[in-house]
Amino acid sequence: MVLMPVVIVLVLWGSTTVVAMAVAVLTAGALWEYFGLGETIGHRAYRVWTVVCAVLLIYAQWAEAYGHGGNDRLYRLYCFSLPPITEILTPLWVFFLFVVGLTGITVWGKRALVEALPAAGISSSALLLVAFPLSYAVPLHGLGGIGPQALFFACAITWAGDTVAYFVGRGIGKHSLAPKLSPKKTWEGSVGGMVGSLAVAFAFSYWIKIPVGHLLAMGAIGNVAGQMGDLLESAYKRSAGVKDSGGLLPGHGGILDRIDALILCIPVIWYYLVVVNPRVVG
What's the pLDDT score for residue 252? Predict the structure, then answer.
């Protein structure tokens, strides 16, 4: 409840540039917690290099978002001052740069060779499973005239799904959803969460002018993606043998614990809007 107003103001009234900066900070914090999970089982990541590439990935997403029709003054200055880089700086280029850097660190680094494979594995998985999907918040926010509302939609259906799932699960939940990953999650809570997300998706039809059928479809797949993201993060924690990813938020765990559902929900909403391309009404 404390953080939601901050997120709402940032998403609805902040520029895509500001959102990109916030996503970069959030991603760096989430990665640091992910690295901590890896270290509990002896997998020490190349922390600094992975975070640098994660920030570059978000930077590339920002550049592509404005490259598809944006008129931000900072982006125009960026294109004017660094024209060659604007042509090659893409997420794919960042992944290639990450591999090149990872190769150099592994070959010429001072760590014992026994750490080479675990370090490469935890570093690569951090970039692929956390930073990459979360970076889609930037192009989603910069998507035409509905970007801010679309990103807020992803947040809202996730918040509603999580909240309703919690109360329904505690109230009537009996059948475990994934006992090995998260014993307290139930099928009843999962269904309740889906209903909550669909209700919010329907409510958005009075604000964002996308046909209600598409909004409900986005609410459904976004909820499923969010629940899968939640369970995936639970798998990370169970693998590391810890209850929470961190202790930044007292009583709520760490950053990863708060954004796990959004990590997969956001790119799913982005791809639905781009691939299915629902008609946006005036």
Answer: 64
Q: Are 12 and 152 in contact (CB under 8 A)?
A: yes
Which DSSP symbol is given to 272? I
| Cα–Cα distance measured from residue 35 to residue 170, given in angstroms and rounded to the nearest whole number | 32
Output the six-digit token pair for 52. 């640098």
Domain ranges of the chain: 16-142, 145-282
Q: Is the pLDDT of residue 23 over 60?
A: yes
> Residue type for 21, please?
M
Residue 65 has pLDDT above 90, yes or no: no
Whole-prediction pTM: 0.89
Listing DSSP states for 162-213 in one string gives: HHHHHHHHHHH--SEEETTTEEEEEHHHHHHHHHHHHHHHHHGGGTS-S-HH
CB-based contact 222:157 (threshold 8 Å)? yes
Is residue 68 scored above 50 in pLDDT? no
